[in-house]
Amino acid sequence: MKKFLICILVLTLAFALTACGKTEPEQLAVYSFSGENEQFAVFNGVIVLSSSNEIFCGGDLKINEEYISDIVSYSTTFYTMSGDEKRIILSNGVTDMTGGLVNVHGDLGQVSGDGILTGTQPNRVDDLKDNLYFELLTTGTDGKENTYQLQVFVTEVTKEVTAGTEEADK
Predict the structure, then answer these.
(1) Is the pTM of this model over 0.85?
(2) Where along the chain do its domains lie?
(3) CB 78 within 8 A of CB 58
(4) For residue 166, what pLDDT is reported?
């Protein structure tokens, strides 16, 4: 939880500092997301949207070793679904090349940039809120692949505020 709060604080301060030199007000909205099932949990995810930058922090993964164990490689993917279109936001993979097992717990990574989540379509924010999914693909020591999918739920942390204005400074 501390990591989550620190991430939000750092991101908010970064946006506030970058907005100080600008003449146009900076629009800022922060969301958190999480989800779980009996196999694993995704928590502490953060989405920050501003008029100049977008940040997607995948948060943390915790697996239930009763269901998922003896893994030699895995990949994680966050994506949205719109009809039949799967739009990948962030994907990472880990493979042990020494013949050992990999630890499937921990940080899921992050990505940032101008328009990486919404592009030129502001309505994609609704896709993030209602259609954000996480996929875990594992390969066991026996060579068998398993795919686990989970819809994660997005919660608005802040109402959209304008950084660098008198209202935001109060």
Answers:
(1) no
(2) 2-169
(3) yes
(4) 45
How far apart, in Å, do the first and last CA atoms of the chain sit?
Answer: 26
d(CA 65, CA 63): 6
Nearest-CA neighbor of 16 among 162, 151, 139? 162
- pLDDT of 109: 95
Cβ–Cβ under 8 Å, residues 79 and 86? yes
Q: Which residues, in sequence order, are CB contacts of 74 under 8 Å at separation 6+?
A: 93, 94, 102, 104, 136, 137, 138, 139
Spell out the alpha helix ranges (H) of 20-69. Answer: none
Long-range contacts of the stretch 117-126 (C-beta < 8 A, 24+): 117/47, 117/49, 117/54, 117/56, 117/89, 118/49, 118/54, 124/80, 125/29, 125/49
Task: Give the tens place of pLDDT for each residue, 8-53.
Answer: 555 555 555 455 555 555 678 899 999 999 999 999 999 998 878 8
Residue 99, both tokens: 């013949």
Beta-sheet pairing, 145-151 with 161-163: unpaired
